[in-house]
Amino acid sequence: MRIINLAHGDLAVLGAYLIYLLLEHWHVSPFLGLLPVLPVMLGLGYLLQRTILERSLRSGCWCRC
Question: 30-59: b or e for each residue (b if 16 or more CB lie within 10 Å)?
Fold first, then answer.
């Protein structure tokens, strides 16, 4: 692995916050809140991987392997 994705923690915290918002505003169970939040976070993580991380990997090798 040539790049470390430091956004994993940020995505996890954002997902937890979205579940918290569902809990507070619509009184949804946290477990039921996973149903809409998980696909959204999956899509966001996939978009991040395809746009930013893979582009930085293709830009050139910045390490001396």
Answer: eeebbeebeeebeeebeebeeeeeeeeeee
Which residues are CB-contacts of 63 (< 8 A; sequence separation ≥ 6)? 2
Contact between 46 and 23 (Cβ < 8 Å): no
**Ranges assigned E (strand) in the chain:** none
**What's the CA angle centered on 62, arms 46 and 54, to 5 degrees?**
15
Residue 62 has pLDDT above 60, yes or no: no
**Is this structure's pTM higher than 0.90?**
no
- Per-residue model confidence (pLDDT) at position 4: 73
